[in-house]
Write a structure and sequence with these properties.
The complex is a heterodimer. By secondary structure, chain A is an alpha+beta fold. Helix content of chain A is about 20%, strand content about 15%. Chain B starts with a strand and ends in a 5-residue tail after the last strand. In chain B, a hairpin with a 2-residue loop joins strand 35 and strand 36. The chains are: A alpha+beta, B alpha/beta.
Chain lengths: ~170, ~900
């Protein structure tokens, strides 16, 4: 008898409590910006692809779900010819982002990527590229690197002397 | 070897007395960082990185820092390789070297296999503390092979030391002063040396990188690799080809102490792209309606092809088989088994066949022993007879360049200078050279290091050889009617060879003359008679020329006769473009007479277009195979990646043909080992073939040897665009290697060693960890076995006749072959980089001859040899003897002409 009343009391108490169930998907939970969700490829501040196809993300990936091929344009700027992430294998560990020397590959707070067909989880470069620099505004790898690319000659990178005249004998 | 005991960090070790400390420590397994030192280039002490601490005695606690590469090991020495002061010293040296190093690693092709990265990590330098601006340089355009990025240079001097001092190049040097040192050419332009590709491996960082790799760039850890053997000449250099996404990406050197050591030639390194060519035959083709070959070849299913094969082989007369000196032993032997030994033809023209038999006879009868490329480097007097070595066997030319240094090393030794002290050796010896005599048709790229050169017709070269033999041993037949200059030269050569400790005679099939090879054998025999052990190195044109020679069979013309006479109507052609080896008219007649032509090859060529049935053959990158090089060394090459489409190993196609032909008593061949066993059983000379490599069921602790590195990436994404279900890795039942990243990652038997990597050593310098001593043989012995050994104590005999002196014919000229390292070889010439370096076909004339015909450089002339008429541009070659004309054989679409031969050269008419 007492236990019955105790149960009723608990039930009554809970009807007045604040609800914890979130009405997903109508209501979205807060996701911190550093959440490791869907992977994107960012662009540099000039709007060019940030990825330089160095293969470090692919090497860091513990499930080997990134594959790409490097190529370069006529000015010598290296970029990926194709860049593929198989999200049906991805474990969203973020090692690729950690390995990326150019802030190109970034994990975003988007986690809504369920599919009925696994094939739809294979993302190509066109699916991964976004229009902005993502979490790291300002950085442009090719402005720092020593190689020449379109619009930047030798000696025009940050912190560089103009090209040396090798026939100059001055000390 | 005198053993010295040294104490490294208070532990005693036994090392070789007099060796340099760096090499001794590396051999013992210590990780000492270094840049400028290289086992083949030795020490100059310019980078200051390999510092160690040397203590005077047990009581000395302070010690002093020395450069280990410049310090000789002596007994009782006490050193420390991890003294804090030494570590700090090295870290600061790296920091200085990195001051100007650009922020390039992600886009640098060397990244991931960079010695500079390894050494920086090894010394613990992490952050650039300075804020000063970085020095920059402009790059140079260095041709189709090498990409230049000068900003990355750390001024170690390795490139120029290799290029100029080791390989004899002249167009790469250092300019500028202080921190403006610039390594490059005087102006933009293609690097001339045919060894420029080695700069990729010599450069410890990314200044010189592989331009062909750059076009389809892949990191070292993503390349599937296998131990392979170069197929572009007879030298048999060991290589490591790398594959990714079904395409061959690059070739790296595979160290074999006895053969190529640390270096390859550019033809071997950059000739691989034919494997990726659009001209590859990828499917079986069948010609509908076989009577007149008017219909085009059509791609067909494998089943339909096999069905039609059954028809052909069952109904036709017995087929004949034409083998190939560029196909493996397995493939050639499978063809021989299909058609029977009496109906197997080697695929070499009659003239070449005779030369190869002569080479084999010379090497097996003795008394001279064929020498490996390493032994060539130890020879202190060399006579080259007739062979343009830099063009026909480039890696041998590099070894010859080292052989002339014997004198320098002897002088240094006399002054008690250790031979690894490179700068001092060169200074004290003033680069004195041991004698190298070159008797060739025209000037060669070795002329700059020769003691004397002689340019003449093949017969004159042979006469010189005979004269040398006579000078050495008066019992040899004398040469009548030679000029006094020839006599003096012969006496001089004989004197030098006699005075040498290890004389060497180099010759080969290059000038197409049997007399020259006999003369070379004569010189070696005469040296033997006077008590010298002479080495003999005979160049052959292709990767398996000696192999197919040992299998034996008729020559090409005999095969033609068999078909045109009606004795056979079906012919199986294995990896052979007959139009490159016989007169086009003869070949056309042959094809007309043959009812059924079955061709097996890699690339669509003229022969393939005449076939009724075309089968796609795997190249060296997709098939296991055994090859015998010019030294007589049998070496196994493993496939790098599984063949795609309908491509299969030639021997597998031929085995299928055997089954289709309804052959009874068929041997059971499931792996190349089975084929090798059959070869060993039926051919006496190839008995040792079973021991060439570990068998297919070889395992280390139950594990196969993986072709993929342990950090191979992208397994679950590389085929995801086709299917998200990852396919199982291809199985390899043929060898102990696996198409996988799983397996034994340690040091496998050297025949199976497919990459160099050790913890902390990602670059090619990791090789140190696989050698028994640095720069010495691989731990466990070098791969490959010699199958050609002369019978011991064989007495030399001399032939009676000596070739006649050259007498020019009125109105006619002697046409001799001229070779090009880039272009003369069939397969490599298909690779874009090699094709860019290859000249077009031309006719070489001496300036006097050109004047007498009334033409000058670049003008067309008409050449008539037998009934072939060719119109070719003239190239003036001042070294060609008068009355002798050089034909650039094998270049471009030049049809086959049998040379040497007499021909007529006239000015081209307007209509030509």
């Amino acid at each position: 008898m007492f236990s019955l009343l105790k149960g009723m009391w608990t039930l009554l108490k809970h009807t007045l409590r604040k609800r914890v169930t979130v009405q997903y998907p109508e209501e979205k939970p807060y996701v911190p910006p550093r959440w490791r969700g869907r992977i994107i490829l960012a662009r540099d501040p000039d709007g060019e692809e940030r990825c330089v196809a160095c293969y470090l993300c692919a090497a860091a990936c513990p499930v080997d779900c990134i594959s790409l091929q490097a190529t370069q344009d006529e000015t010598g700027r290296r970029y990926p010819e194709f860049f593929r992430i198989n999200f049906s294998r991805c474990i969203l560990c973020g090692f690729c982002e950690e390995a990326c020397p150019t802030y190109a590959i970034q994990l975003t707070p988007d986690y809504e990527m369920c599919e009925y067909d696994r094939r739809n989880l294979v993302y190509e470069k066109e699916d991964l590229l976004i229009s902005g620099p993502g979490k790291y505004p300002g950085y442009n790898f090719y402005r720092v690197a020593g190689v020449t690319v379109g619009g930047k000659d030798k000696g025009e990178s940050e912190n560089e002397e103009p090209p040396t005249d090798v026939r100059d004998l001055m000390p | 070897m005198i053993v010295a005991t040294i104490h490294i960090d208070n532990k005693p070790y036994e090392v070789q007395e007099g060796d340099n400390l760096l090499s001794a420590c590396l051999s013992l397994g210590f990780d000492i960082p270094y840049f400028c030192w290289h086992p083949a280039l030795h020490s100059v002490g310019s980078c200051r990185l390999c510092a160690v601490k040397n203590f005077r005695n047990e009581e000395d606690t302070r010690g002093h820092i020395v450069m280990s590469c410049m310090t000789a090991v002596c007994d009782g020495m006490r050193i420390s390789v991890k003294d804090p002061e030494v570590l700090e010293f090295r870290a600061s040296v790296i920091e200085w070297l990195m001051l100007h190093h650009p922020h390039d690693c992600p886009v640098c092709d060397e990244g991931g296999e960079c010695h500079l990265q390894d050494m920086t990590v090894m010394t613990g330098h992490n952050y650039r503390r300075t804020r000063m601006r970085k020095r920059t340089f402009r790059n140079q355009e260095l041709g189709p092979f090498i990409y230049h990025e000068m900003n990355r240079c750390i001024q170690c001097y390795r490139c120029v030391r290799f290029y100029r001092k080791y390989a004899g190049g002249r167009d790469l040097d250092v300019s500028g002063i202080h921190n403006h040192l610039y390594y490059g050419r005087f102006e933009d332009g293609t690097l001339e040396s045919e060894f420029s590709g080695n700069l990729v491996e010599i450069c410890p960082t990314g200044v010189f990188t592989d331009k062909t790799l750059r076009k389809h760039f892949t990191r070292k850890w993503d390349l599937q690799t296998a131990p392979s053997v170069c197929v572009h000449c007879g030298a048999g250099c060991n290589t490591i080809p790398g594959e990714r996404y079904g395409k061959l990406r690059r070739i790296l050197n595979r160290y074999n102490h006895e053969v190529n050591g640390y270096f390859l030639c550019d033809r071997g390194r950059f000739g691989y792209e034919f494997v990726n060519s659009d001209r590859r035959i990828r499917r079986a083709h069948l010609r509908p309606g076989t009577s007149d070959r008017s219909a085009e070849l059509e791609p067909s299913s494998k089943e339909a092809v096999v069905a039609s094969l059954e028809g052909i082989l069952a109904n036709g007369k017995r087929p004949i088989g034409i083998g190939s000196p560029r196909a493996s032993l397995e493939a050639n032997f499978a063809l021989r088994s299909l058609v029977g030994p009496d109906r197997f033809y080697t695929g070499m023209p009659e003239s070449e066949s005779a030369l190869v038999s002569l080479v084999l006879e010379t090497l097996t009868c003795g008394p001279a022993v064929s020498v490996s490329l390493r032994e060539v480097e130890l020879c202190d007097a060399v006579l080259v007879l007739g062979e343009d070595v830099p063009n026909t066997s480039p890696r041998l030319a590099l070894s010859l360049r080292q052989s002339v240094r014997r004198r320098s090393l002897k002088i240094a030794d006399k002054h008690c200078i250790p031979l690894w002290n490179d700068r001092a050796v060169r200074k004290v010896s003033q680069e004195a050279k041991s004698p190298l005599f070159l008797a060739t048709v025209a000037a060669t790229r070795l002329d700059d290091i020769s003691a004397a050169t002689f340019n003449g017709t093949p017969d004159e070269i042979a006469r010189l050889g005979y004269a040398v033999a006579h000078e050495l041993d008066p019992a040899a037949p004398p040469v009548e009617g030679s000029t006094s200059e020839e006599h003096v030269l012969a006496a001089c050569i004989a004197g030098a060879l006699k005075a040498a400790e290890r004389p060497l005679v180099v010759s080969g099939t290059g000038c197409g003359s049997e007399a020259v090879i006999i003369a070379a054998a004569q010189v070696a025999a005469a040296l033997h008679r006077v008590g010298k052990t002479a080495g003999l190195s005979l160049c052959v044109p292709e990767c398996n020329t000696l192999g197919v020679g040992l299998i034996g069979g008729g020559h090409l013309e005999a095969a033609f006769k068999e078909v045109t006479s009606g004795a056979a109507d079906t012919v199986v052609i294995l990896e052979n473009d007959l139009f490159r080896r016989a007169d086009a008219k003869l070949v056309a007649e042959f094809f007309k007479a043959a009812t059924h032509v079955i061709a097996i090859d890699h690339l669509f060529n003229q022969t393939a277009s005449h076939a009724d049935l075309l089968l796609p053959a795997a190249t060296f990158a997709e098939a296991d195979g055994t090859f015998i090089n010019a030294e007589g060394r049998a070496q196994r090459s493993y496939r790098v990646f599984p063949a795609t489409d309908e491509i299969r190993e030639s021997w597998r196609w031929l085995y299928e043909l055997m089954q289709a032909a309804g052959k009874t008593d068929l041997p059971l061949w499931t792996t190349p080992d089975d084929v090798c066993r059959s070869i060993a059983e039926s051919i006496d000379a190839l008995k040792p073939l079973g021991q060439v490599a570990p068998p297919a069921d070889f395992r280390v602790a139950g594990l196969k040897i993986p072709r993929q590195p342990h950090r191979y990436s992208g397994r679950t994404a590389m085929t995801a665009q086709v299917s998200v279900h990852e396919p199982a890795p291809a199985r390899d039942a043929d060898s102990a290697l696996a198409f996988s990243m799983e397996g034994f990652h340690g040091h496998p038997p050297n025949a199976l060693l497919d990459r160099y990597w050790a913890p902390g050593w990602n670059s090619v310098q990791a090789l140190n960890k696989f050698q028994s001593e640095v720069g010495g043989p691989l731990r466990g012995g070098d791969p490959g076995i010699r199958v050609l050994e002369p019978a011991p104590d064989r007495e030399a005999t001399y032939p009676e006749s000596v070739p006649e002196a050259f007498s020019p014919r009125a109105g006619e000229r002697l046409i001799v072959p001229l070779y090009h390292v880039f272009g003369s070889e069939e397969l490599s010439a298909v690779s874009p980089g090699i094709a860019e370096r290859s000249p077009g076909p031309y006719l070489g004339l001496s300036p006097d001859d050109a004047e007498s015909i009334g033409v000058d450089e670049g003008r067309n002339v008409r050449l008539t040899v037998a009934d072939v008429v060719l119109v070719l541009p003239v190239r003036l070659i001042p070294s060609l003897p008068q009355g002798v004309t050089g034909l650039s054989v094998g270049l471009g679409d030049l049809p086959y002409v049998q040379v040497p031969a007499w021909g007529v050269v006239t000015r081209a008419k307007a209509g030509d």
